[in-house]
Amino acid sequence: MSRNFESEISKAFEQLLKNETDYNVIIYIGEEPNIKEFHAHHIILRCRSEYFNKILSDENIKKIDENYIIENSNIDPQSFKSILKYLYTGHINITNKNETELLNILIASDELKLKRLTKQIEEFIIEKYHQFLQNDPVGILQTVYYRKFLVKLQELCLELICYKPKILFNSDKFINLPAPLLEIILKRDDLNLSEIEIWENLIKWGLSQEQEFNQEISQWNQDDFNIFKGILQKFIPLIRFYEISSEDYYNKVKPYEGILSKELVDEILKFHMVPGYRRTLNIYGPRHSNYGIIKNISSFFSKMKYYQAIIDIINFIIEDDEINPTSPLELPPPKLPSPHLVLYIVLLILLILNYFDGVIVFKTLYSIWACFFYHRIIAR
Predict the structure, then answer these.
(1) Per-residue model confidence (pLDDT) at position 326
(2) Out of 3, 20, 181, 373, which residue is the most buried by the measure of CB atoms under 10 Å away?
């Protein structure tokens, strides 16, 4: 018979960390003026972390009074405190952390090469990213954009921002969005805003970048226009001017024509005034708010393990007029109006695929719906 005393060991190591008994490692974490000193034990750090094992096994490591000295300015001190406790006890509470704290711990965990912890925290954040992004869209985007290992989270955040752009554009912090991130968003074809709204938000962002601007554009001189043009120059080609109505152009774009090239202004004028005129500028076509859904359809088919089974179910539902389900779910008969029929199919497909992995329901339904119509097309 065996007994599990893991909790006792964990508590003992936690007490060792707290009391700092016989510590022989001093770790300085953070940047001035926010540097904090931590004390730890050589053997525990080497056993628990590939990062610390490599540093502490180096013969040239700095030592003062027989204590190993380690410095890291890339990690937030509060995050390191949580991780150090995790190294000693194997436990870390991430459910009581806000989005900023969690991302800092995630970044610190990756820096310290704690692969299992990094994976678990990233998975938790991905589950909650919708909520986190609404709380602090600019902060979250900034954090994930500059971290290569967060590629999946980057794409999820950008997709949600494009699907629900008001999360970002209505935020008080929108004007603090770094230019490279704004450029990435404006390049996307799935940004779910009208082009005139995109233009208005770009103007709002641009005006906030220079405190000297008079909010009354009628009071601007040529120097003001030159400065503003310099701020927005790389964003102007990203605006799909052909998608802006002549009325909106006159009322909302024309006042800022001083930042547009003469070639572009002439092109827009011809487009609105010459019947049948073929556009010659602006390499970007119209945006598609359903672009992300179309992309998801492709991904759905590529990952589907039970494609033939699903097709068989659709065949069964559509073609068999005598369906009488005996499932304990007591599903209704299939002779229903087409919207209900599609939902009937969706329930069965989700049951087979167990497709409840955090994907936005809206996108999932469109993917399944696509499967239905795809089958109808190939069947013909």
Answers:
(1) 45
(2) 181
Q: How far is CA 217 from CA 207, 235, 254, 319, in A?
A: 10, 19, 11, 65
Q: How far apart are CA 42 and CA 60, in angstroms?
A: 15
Asked if 211 and 223 touch (Cβ cutoff 8 Å), the reply is no
Query: For the stretch 307-340, what's the b/e string if a residue is b when 16 or more beta carbons lie within 10 angstroms of its beta carbon?
Result: eeebeebbeebbeeeeeeeeeeeeeeebeeeeee
How do beta strands 63-64 and 67-72 pair? Answer: antiparallel
Strand order in the sheet with 25-29: 36-40, 25-29, 67-72, 63-64
Query: What are residue 71's DSSP bridge partners?
Result: 28
Q: Are strands 67-72 and 36-40 parallel, antiparallel or unpaired?
A: unpaired
DSSP state, residue 30: S
pLDDT, residue 149, reads 87
3-state secondary structure of 57: coil
Q: Which domains does the chain have, with CATH numbers?
A: 1-76 (3.30.710.10), 93-192 (no CATH), 195-289 (no CATH), 291-379 (no CATH)
Mean pLDDT of the chain: 80
Taking a C-beta distance cutoff of 8 angstroms, is the pair 107, 140 a contact?
no
